[in-house]
Amino acid sequence: MYFEKIAMFLFLFGGSKVHPCLKKNYPCSAMGNQYYSLHINCGGKEAIFNNSKYEADLEVRGASMFYSGQNWAFSSTGNFMDNDLEADVYIDANTSTLHNVSATDSELYKTARVSPLSLTYYGLCLGNGNYTVRLHFAEIVYTNDQTFDSLGKRIFDVYIQGKLVLKDFNIENEAGGPGNPIVKNFTAEVTSHTLKIHFYWAGKGTTGIPQRGVYGPLISAISVDPNFKPPSEHGKKIYVRVVAGAVVGAVFIVFLVLIILWRKGWLGGKISADKDRTMLCPVKSRHEDRREDGLLRGENPLRPCLLCIFENLRISLRRTTSHSTSLLQTGLFTLRQIKAATMNFDAANRIGEGGFGSVYKGLLSDGTVIAVKQLSAKSKQGNKEFVNEIGMISGLQHPNLVKLYGCCVEGNQLILIYEYMENNCLSRALFGRDAICKLKLDWPTRQKICLGIARGLAYLHEESRLKIVHRDIKTSNVLLDKEFNAKISDFGLAKLYEDDNTHISTRVAGTIGYMAPEYAMRGYLTNKADVYSFGVVALEIVSGKSNTNYRPKEEFVYLLDWAYVLQERGSLLELVDPELGSEYSSEEAMVMLNVALLCTNASPTLRPTMSQVVSMLEGRTAVQDLLSDPGFSAINPKFKAIRNHFWQNPSQTQSMSTDGPYSDDGSLSNIDKEENNILLRVNSVISDK
């Protein structure tokens, strides 16, 4: 099944006919292209305005219509309330004299698109970033000649990216009379390659002047321009070829390598844990340097496979372009390079320590600062997780995901090389034991970090062609660069997730205290497990306290328990980190806290998606009313018993992977036995209660 999913990833990268940038699956006629501007003459023919070509928009189909162009689309809904006396007209021509506009520019205002209820324009395949949206209006139906036709009043609302930007908008009043053009400017952020502009009639204004059925939103033209410098056309073509060639080639090799490793028994399932560890980190002997059949005894079997992966990636990139120097750095490093970069793993360069081993700061000969993750022989991360992390993260590129430069596999060494993060991990910044480690994070920085994590997860779950469940979202797996941009790291436990699967049944892997209950108890895995983990992390960011180490009172096991109690009491703001003092927005804090509690709902179906979380954190969507959550209240004996058990066994709060060895004779593994013992003890506690 695991390799079938890898094969699906290969298929998606190589032959998907649905453009990845279309958030809502609108058809995109120019496959592979991204656009950085949009100009539409709504309801009119093609026109030139301010040296920009405005595309024609003349489609008229009826009460419910949808039209899709090359990089934009629109939908219109509703019948005009005119007693069907006349056929509905969805494009109006000017009946009033245009003022304050040249003959050339008047082409934008001679006609306009109207709708009786709802009119939505979509910008498709836009490059992500901030844009200036200009909405051109002119009231061309009503007049100012003191006749009955001048008494009409058109009122409607305008939303951009789901956010209300104009309420009870009256073109005539804003422009100073009929026939006067007016342009409204807005800034909009495109994060999923789609821009949505919605015009909506809420039942206000007149509906029968100059005759029945004259009302509803009216728009003359739309322009969208970037607030950043777009990549050149040449650069875009190079980039597309680089990604298409390199990723498809690399993923194909990864797929083949994983099959080989699996058949050899190097990915678990055919060998015991001790044998896997021995193969991973062979014990040195006095005869180790003796060569047999041209190979050095003790050489790690992963090395030729990984060399093949990265060499294929490097060759693909070289064939495509000689300018992608940053991408060409990705590959297989020698142990000599890593030792030189870290001064032979000098303790002074050690910047982190974990169950996997140590992390060192390094400096390559070309001046690139790197982070070197050296897996310890005692690490629970084995061959499968090591290859899994390389395969997953090398196929993903996002500002909120850590960048993998490559790896080193020599002898008994398994080393990953990442981009260097100046501010270490979020866990250290929040919970550091001393003033050097613990950073003073102000409120805007905490918001920025929380939103960055949400965007990274939204990309993994919904925007990337390779849909991934991370499975181990926690503060120590969120890194911070010098600008405090959050980057998700550690993909060793990540799982591929297919849209047509309701869930994945798998052995539990992750960190107690961050795992969703349905996953921790039954191995029921969906992307909502990551949503739950994000909710816990968001609580920690706001409170500055660790979910697993903070115990306000004996009856509450985790920070999350205390949060639900405070939420029921209506005093949720007591959770805000006292170190912030009064230097924070109570409204923004309530948004983050409510989003966190929404994400940690006991029912996975009631948790929001990560794209919804991003929208709520950005203020584009109101936070949903929190549903009552008895599943996580302090009075629920089942969850309380489980939490108490894990609290009383702190060794289990370490990250654990249970994808590992199991007995082929049908007997339970140690992990399965321990899980059963836990459930038996939990049921016993519940029965006693």
Structure description:
- Helix 10 runs antiparallel to helix 12, helix 10 packs antiparallel against helix 15 (610-617) and helix 16 (637-647) crosses helix 17.
- Strand 25 and strand 26 form a beta hairpin.
- 31% of the residues lie in helices and 20% in strands.
- The protein has three domains: 38-226, Jelly Rolls, CATH 2.60.120.430; 233-282 and 296-419, Phosphorylase Kinase, domain 1 (2-Layer Sandwich); 426-655, Transferase(Phosphotransferase) domain 1 (Transferase(Phosphotransferase), domain 1, Orthogonal Bundle).
- Mean pLDDT is 75; it is low at 1-31, 268-299, 313-329, 626-636 and 642-689.
- The chain is α+β, with helices and mostly antiparallel strands and 689 residues long.
Task: For this entry, give a set of tags.
689 residues, Jelly Rolls, Phosphorylase Kinase, domain 1, Transferase(Phosphotransferase), domain 1, six-stranded antiparallel β-sheet, disordered N terminus, disordered C terminus
Strand order of the largest sheet: 2-3-1-15-9-12
- Assembly state: single chain
Instruction: Look at the structure and give the CATH class of the largest domain.
Output: Mainly Alpha
Helix content, binned percent: 25-40%
List the SSEs and their pairings.
Elements: H1 2-15, E1 38-42, E2 47-49, E3 52-57, E4 64-68, E5 72-77, E6 91-93, E7 111-114, E8 118-124, E9 129-137, E10 156-160, E11 163-169, H2 171-175, E12 182-190, E13 194-200, E14 218-219, E15 221-226, H3 233-264, H4 273-280, E16 291-292, E17 295-296, H5 302-320, H6 325-328, E18 331-332, H7 335-342, E19 350-354, E20 357-363, E21 369-375, H8 383-394, E22 404-410, E23 413-419, H9 426-431, H10 443-463, E24 468-469, E25 478-480, E26 486-488, E27 495-496, E28 504-505, E29 509-510, H11 517-522, E30 524-525, H12 528-543, H13 559-569, H14 586-599, H15 610-617, H16 637-647, E31 656-657, H17 670-688
Parallel strand pairs: 1-3, 18-22
Antiparallel strand pairs: 1-15, 2-3, 4-5, 5-8, 6-7, 7-14, 8-13, 9-12, 9-15, 10-11, 10-13, 16-17, 19-20, 20-21, 21-23, 22-23, 24-27, 25-26, 28-30, 29-31
Helix pairs in contact: 1-3, 3-5, 10-12, 10-15, 12-14, 16-17
